[in-house]
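queue> pop job 88
queue> type: inverse folding (structure -> sequence)
queue> payload:
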């Protein structure tokens, strides 16, 4: 058993729901939150209560509906936001307010039109105010990925002194390289005197396709919470994908990290989120894509039929998929064809297989994929010829 737990903070219902055109109904949000609870998520970010009355109600309903996970509400570093988040969370068994402000030069100068000193003060004041409502307060330093490390460390030290229990270091724009992001977390570990009093959280966006790699670099450097979404949904190119980071920690024991996620529920959770949001999952998506355990080239099929782990690093059962798929295309060989025939009840002799293979290739060249119906047709035709 790995020694250190990494907390899984799911933000599918907040950052994930910011996908254009993917608005969820309240009942759907509650349904997803219940599924996340069964999945074993530690923290559910249920929404941004000040953003709309609908979001406020959803956070409240989710807070009532789930028992084990912490329920979190987002706020800006503004009193009205924080108070509203506290109200929405009033029925949560374990409430958390997630408050914060931009800390990069770009955010301070252009978005907030402020100064580093004033932002530092607002950050501390926001955490103190949130602390007057709940014990568990998470602070986010928005655009931390592009924030100067020395200034970031100063802000993080001050918010921990003000009572922050978790400090979130978002790579808001998905800009960092893994080694850069890992070094940022390490810098905080080494230069924030009270860092042991809080948990460092990663929150990475996928603009350069590095969200998962950056989150893993973050936990390797000492972060112990990952913020992520099912199927990697989220603003622009999305957030870190929950299923990817969880399976990376599972498959690499030397990382010595574990999560409480029941991985066997990953596929069904992915389907639920995809269906409710009307957002299809790309077929080649790691872990949960339709092709994640499908083999179509003859060389791979031959290997997998002989022994699954020749071409699969994850047993599909581990993530709730009942078997690997041998897809028959013009690239498939005799081994795959015999295997698929066996699955539908035909044990072919070598001669029969050789003859059928020629017919099979004709059909495969004409079609993208040969299915069981085609196989039945081919064998019927072949046996008629021989009789
Ligand atoms: O990406 C980001 O910086 C965020 C914060 C609001 C946590 O989503
Ligand atoms: Zn985000």
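queue> result:
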């Amino acid at each position: 058993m790995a020694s250190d737990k990494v907390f899984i903070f799911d933000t599918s219902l907040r950052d994930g729901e910011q996908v254009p055109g993917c608005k969820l109904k309240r009942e759907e949000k509650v349904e997803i939150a219940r599924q996340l609870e069964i999945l074993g998520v530690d923290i559910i970010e249920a929404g941004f209560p000040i953003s709309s009355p609908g979001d406020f109600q959803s956070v409240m309903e989710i807070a009532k509906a789930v028992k084990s996970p912490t329920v979190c509400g987002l706020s800006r570093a503004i009193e009205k936001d924080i108070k509203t988040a506290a109200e929405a969370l009033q029925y949560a068994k374990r409430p958390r307010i997630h408050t914060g402000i931009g800390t990069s030069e770009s955010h301070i100068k252009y978005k907030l039109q402020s100064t580093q000193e004033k932002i530092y003060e607002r950050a501390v004041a926001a955490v103190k105010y949130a602390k007057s409502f709940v014990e568990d307060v998470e602070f986010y330093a928005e655009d931390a990925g592009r924030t100067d490390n020395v200034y970031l460390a100063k802000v993080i030290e001050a918010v921990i002194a003000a009572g922050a229990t978790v400090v979130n270091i978002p790579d808001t724009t998905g800009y960092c390289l893994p080694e850069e992001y890992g070094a940022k977390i390490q810098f905080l570990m080494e230069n924030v005197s009270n860092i042991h009093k809080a948990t460092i959280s990663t929150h990475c966006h996928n603009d350069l396709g590095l969200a998962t790699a950056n989150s893993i670099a973050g936990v390797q450097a000492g972060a112990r919470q990952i913020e992520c979404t099912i199927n990697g949904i989220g603003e622009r190119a999305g957030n870190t994908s929950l299923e990817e980071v969880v399976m990376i920690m599972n498959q690499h024991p030397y990382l010595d990290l574990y999560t409480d996620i029941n991985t066997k529920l990953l596929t069904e959770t992915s389907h639920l989120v995809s269906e409710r949001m009307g957002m299809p999952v790309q077929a080649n998506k790691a872990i949960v894509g339709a092709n994640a355990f499908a083999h179509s080239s003859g060389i791979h099929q031959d290997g997998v039929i002989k022994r699954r782990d020749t071409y699969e690093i994850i047993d599909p059962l581990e993530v709730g998929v009942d078997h690997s798929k041998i897809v028959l295309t013009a690239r498939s060989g005799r081994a795959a064809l015999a295997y698929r025939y066996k699955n539908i009840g035909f044990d072919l002799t070598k001669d029969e297989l050789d003859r059928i293979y020629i017919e099979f290739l004709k059909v495969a060249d004409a079609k993208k994929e040969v299915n069981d119906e085609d196989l039945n047709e081919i064998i019927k035709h072949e046996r008629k010829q021989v009789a």
